[in-house]
Design goal:
The protein is α/β, with parallel strands linked by helices. 34% of the residues lie in helices and 11% in strands. The protein is globular and about 90 Å long. The structure holds 2-acetamido-2-deoxy-beta-D-glucopyranose. One of its GO terms (biological process) is protein N-linked glycosylation.
């Protein structure tokens, strides 16, 4: 047996050497052609197979918008929404999401101030559906009146909706929470390249800018956003008006930090059950003013990036080309319906309508 080994080996060598060169060349050519063909014609992006999230939604998503939750909101399964390993530390990650993993969330029961506008919920949902189809984003409406949030003000119930959105869509990477009193004015606007992608964040968020708690002149906080934010850390994207952050249009990224922030914001004895006129908006503002760690994870964009108001100067008021218009505070002068219809008629407009300096 032992002695036959060398013999066997040399036999093999001979066999290899005697293989005709032609067939080797032919085999190599075929492999090369296949590689080239696959690269150019079977062009399935690598991203397609990348495991983006702990679980892809395979079964169609079922919402329970027509029935109340069985008990206190925090005890519901959606608060156990999962995050993948790469986003479970506070150092985070940076990458461009797939468009389908950007979720546009309307958290509303159609009531409140907005009910002054006829069929407002149906109209904006239909419009957002078209926007999402155009870009491949995911559109979702969650009925906020089904959450049992105790005695807290109803606007807090937007936060359980964010948790439920992450839970219902396990691959959703960014959830964009937008109020019902918002009209998307520029349907071409690309959220990944303009807002949530790492390059956009790097380019766009405001460094060393004061975090407001009322008007800056009257009540300076002396607390600023980081001078050198790390794009990997940014999990929340928000804007400020002249007084404070505004949660009417806010982006949340699936990460352990975001989950903990949502849980903390809705802590009943520390924040949610307390008297806060600005509800969930005051909660995030308070946490930003109080905690360096929270400031590191919240990126503040200039207001008009994704939260222009119907009225205001160049920092605040809608101008041609802005993504959207938000009718924040329209009920004060009873103007909701009038303003809404005016802007609705100008949706997607290309003419010169609200130019700079007006
Ligand atoms: C929202 O939920 C509430 C409570 O579950 C329900 O009474 C109401 O009909 C729902 N609204 C819509 C528009 O489905």
């Amino acid at each position: 047996m032992l002695r036959s080994f060398p013999a066997l080996a040399s036999n093999k060598m001979q066999a290899l050497q005697s293989l005709p060169r032609k067939s080797i060349i032919l085999a190599l050519s075929i492999v090369t052609i296949l590689i080239v063909l696959f690269r150019f014609y079977g062009d399935v992006p690598v991203d397609y197979y990348r495991n983006y999230a702990p679980a892809e939604a395979i079964a169609p998503v079922v919402t329970n918008n027509d029935k109340p939750q069985p008990g206190y909101f925090k005890a519901q399964p959606e608060w156990d929404w999962q995050v993948p390993d790469y986003s479970n530390g506070w150092q985070g990650y940076a990458r461009k999401p797939r468009n389908r993993d950007v979720l546009v969330l309307t958290a509303s029961d159609g009531g409140g101030h907005n009910s002054a506008i006829p069929n407002v919920l149906e109209r904006v949902l239909d419009d957002r559906e078209k926007y999402c189809q155009k870009h491949g984003y995911t559109n979702l409406w969650l009925n906020t009146s089904r959450y049992d949030i105790g005695e807290a003000h109803r606007t807090w119930s937007k936060i359980p909706a964010v948790a439920e959105a992450f839970y219902l869509y396990p691959s959703a990477e960014w959830v964009w929470l937008i109020d019902t009193d918002i009209i998307l004015m520029t349907p071409e606007y690309d959220l990944v390249n303009e807002v949530v992608g790492p390059d956009a964040i790097k380019r766009g968020i405001m460094r060393d800018t004061p975090i407001l708690d009322g008007q800056l002149k009257k009540n300076p906080t002396y607390i600023n956003t980081p001078k050198n934010p790390r794009v990997e850390d940014i999990d929340i994207l928000i804007t400020q008006d002249h007084q404070s952050v505004n949660t009417g249009s806010t982006f949340f990224r699936r990460s352990a930090f975001t989950r903990y922030l949502l849980e903390t914001m809705t802590d009943y004895s520390m924040l949610m059950g307390k008297e806060h006129t600005g509800a969930e908006q005051d909660a995030i503002k308070h946490l930003m003013l109080e905690h360096q760690l929270v400031r590191n994870h919240v990126g503040i964009y200039p207001q008009r990036k994704f939260n222009a108001y119907a009225q205001g100067g160049n920092n605040m008021g809608y101008r041609d080309g802005d993504l959207l218009v938000h009718f924040a505070g329209c009920w004060v002068g009873g103007k909701c319906q009038e303003w809404f219809e005016e802007f609705w008629g100008k949706k997607g407009h290309k003419d010169v309508w609200r130019p700079e300096g007006q």
